[in-house]
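Lab notebook page, bench 4
Experiment: in silico fold of construct C2
Operator: M.H.
Input chain length: 78 residues
Purpose: comparison with the prior construct
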Amino acid sequence: MSGTSVDSIDAVAMQLDNDGVHLRGTYSLPIPEVIRANVFLLREQNEVHIEFLCETDALLGELLSNAAIELMSSCSIK
């Protein structure tokens, strides 16, 4: 996630070898407004309903996996 603004998922692919660390690529996936709103609501609530937390967690998990897949694809990583 991109800082406290929760506006995007920023991913980076790095290659580590004997010559050092090399940037392979980056990818940024905007977080839909409804999911951003869920994250902010969870942060502000005194009591959290487990169903809402799990639903938001699953949606974020899908976004994270999509960002990773897109990054790997754009860098030709299998």
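Observations: Strands lie at 8-17, 20-30. The helical segments are 33-44, 50-74.
Next step: discuss at group meeting.
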